[in-house]
Amino acid sequence: MTRLHDLNFFVKLAAAFALMTVAWLAPDWRFGFPFAALILLMLWATRVPKLGGYLKGAGLLTLMVIVSWMVNLLLQGVSAPDALAHAAKMAARLVATTALFYFVMETSPPGAILAACSAARLPAVVTLVLSLLFGIIPMLRDEFERIADAQRARGMEIDDVSLVRRLRFALARGVPLLVQAIRTAHAISFSLSLYGFELSRKRTTWREVGLMVEPRMTWKDMTR
């Protein structure tokens, strides 16, 4: 797992896009579902953190996609077997896609993303967008879990309930999560202004970034 954290962020991102393309080019669900299962097995084998929470979300996503697509296709006059096959294919694609980018997010610390972007001499805006995109989603997920813990502490039963009630309670977390997201965005913008972030200013990096990210400076580098 440590070596996965050290692997260049863009190498992992390119691999995720390549595997995602394979998933979306799958001809039907008979190929898509085994491929999505293989991706999930890869996450388990590499011991990606908090995989249990992701699997719960992936299961809910699969159910919602299949139901929504089947209803839509049935209303259009598609036969039930064809509607189910198409809905299963879309669910497999989305599970594979979300699993791949979950892997990238959980194995790419913000510092590694910033170092890779800086070493690649990407524009400041691109660096900022990538670091925030892959850094703030895990933060919001953790905040979502803290809100759930607060609900449990106040006596709200959100575990051993029906799926409909669980969805209602999940939606009830949306308002405090939105408030926290706005506060986080404000804190980030305030920190950037304090540290003198400017779009026109080019910056350098002290980290050596090749295929792997070198997280430490050597004594030779420090004595230059």
From TrEMBL:
A Pfam short name: CbiQ
Ranges that cross the membrane: 7-25, 31-48, 60-78, 112-137
Signal peptide positions (record): none
Subcellular localization: Membrane
Gene Ontology cellular component annotations, sorted alphabetically: plasma membrane
Highest taxon of source: Bacteria
Main location: membrane
Keyword field: Membrane, Transmembrane, Transmembrane helix
Membrane disposition: Multi-pass membrane protein
Family the entry assigns: Belongs to the CbiQ family.
Protein name per Swiss-Prot or TrEMBL: Transmembrane component of general energizing module of ECF transporter
Organism field: Salipiger mucosus DSM 16094
